Amino acid sequence: MTPLTDVELTSLIRLLSDDDATILAMVTAKLLESGDRIVPVLQEARTRASEPVRARIDGILARLSGDVDPMFVLHEWHELADGEADIDLERGVAALARFGDPKVDWELYHQRLDRMADEVAIRLAGVSEPFDIVQTLSEYLFQEQDFQGEPMDKPDGSYMNRVLDRRRGIPITLSAVCLLIAQRLDLPIYGVGLPAHFIVKYQTAATEILFDPFSGGTILTRDACADFLTRIGYRFTETFLDPVPNRYVLARMLNNLIMLYSNLGEHRKIETLLEYRRLVTGEE
Description:
By secondary structure, the chain is of the alpha+beta class. It has 13 helices and seven strands. It has two domains: about 5-105, no CATH class; about 110-280, Roll (C8orf32 fold), CATH 3.10.620.
């Protein structure tokens, strides 16, 4: 294979801003064929790239080497968590997916979520009542697509790429699937971080609908949530049902993995995850 010239390489990197799936697939294949010699060029291009292009470059860099430079990965988390604004949830779960599998190409999962959102949008055509919107989303995810809950005893349920592949997840990752699709459709759906559980809610000034992705989208009342928390030893307060920011969602995902890897004795992974959590929460 003839090595790419500098001009050809620059042109291919520029084409990563194209949203056409065929073009992106062709460009990605060409860049991957060039091997790890282009890693420095891609890393330099990444510093100047827009957010979507940066994510695509990250996917290519990860696939070029299964042993991604730890400092590069840490830099990604610094970028993600920098500043006082909330974190982009999809960038967060993508970074976490790359921790679990450095070769994961998140762009493929981004496109899958786009397609899922498009399919939900078709089903929502003409639907305006909040309960009907929630029911339509739940039927699509938990009946048509067969997303289901599973015990929180293996790391797979905490990595969004594996959740999307297997259609199995824990409460917070199944809730995150709802949130990522709702985000694409501008639906007012938010995460709710109950102690020992995670749900979502549809909320406007006039309407609140709590529902549980882990239980197939079951609609919950405030009283039902209060009863659940009382049974597991918590004194219920209304603030438990407040929407939580993406930083909280991602920190809780990290906590879940820290607990799992503690049980497995994976101390190096725990140290890395603790550093990621420190960046996300801002805690010293």
